Amino acid sequence: MAHSGRARVTAGSRLKPPSRSSAGANPAFLADVLYGLGRQPKTLPAKYFYDLEGSRLFEEITRLPEYYPTRTELGILDASGPEIGSLCPPGAALVEFGSGSTAKFRRLLPHLPRLSAYVPVDVSADFLGAEAERLRADYPDLRVLPVEADFSRPFRLPAGIGERPLVGFFPGSTIGNFEPEDAGLLLARFRDLLGPDAVLIVGVDLVKDVGVLEAAYDDAQGVTAQFNLNMLRRINRELGADFDLDGFSHRAVYNAPLSRIEMHLVSRRAQTAQVRGHPIHFAAGESIHTESSYKYTTDRFEELADHAGWPRARMFTDPRRLFAVFALQPR
Ligand code: AVJ
Fold first, then answer.
1. Which letter does DSSP use for residue 326 in this model?
2. What's the pLDDT score for residue 81?
3. Whole-prediction pTM value?
């Protein structure tokens, strides 16, 4: 299965953009689902939120009044763009990890001095190809070199790119979906990939009032609830399961000792679902942990980055200090 060789597998240990791919394309899906639902407590990997409908629901989430991260990060990129851009070496190539929509790259682009190439890295080839075409049309002088890869695993940059100074771009607080230890390992891998003259621009969601955090993951319109439940809908469709979606409710709680928002699907009653002939029993009130979204203080994130080989950190934030964009340098 996809997680073989990893000692710990927790909900949300992988990422948002990865699975925009089409139905049933991932052969590890069944194994991951049976593995997660066979554990105590039950879990499902957050990466499986993003089928077509899940990606659409996530885009809807980013526009919700309660979901502050996306608009706050875009505001920071606009307000601090000139300063962030001035930290980036002229003529650099920018590598975006889990590029998704490229909307954030487009906001940063005007501030990047003579960018020589844009390298979006994403697991969804279809998505990458379409976005690359649109960018080429809008910026005919920009070299767009998409890489189809899971950035949480080792991958190669396109030939010729290594000669240029490199800027890494990892927005969206995607790093929050990793367990802190894995987040550190990931930053260390980015350091090795990007080299000693790199700059890494990372978006990080900050610790804040519990009410604000929980509302962002449990909105009044119930879009996040639909997003969470869509995981079961996808399992029903792609794995021939028979989850009763009305039998589960969405729950988002802030786990303060671990500084993370947890999303759960809670069984409303005792019930049994079948997944490809495997019975999965639920007690009333039993939950499936579907996602963790870690929140950092600026100090804690700088410490994590420092230990991962990024000792120099500039921090940019919004007036309410909801979100931070870091520009990290290896020396
Ligand atoms: C895409 C992982 C950054 O954790 O805020 C949004 C995903 N989950 N609402 C986040 C998400 C529920 C999002 N990330």
1. E
2. 97
3. 0.89
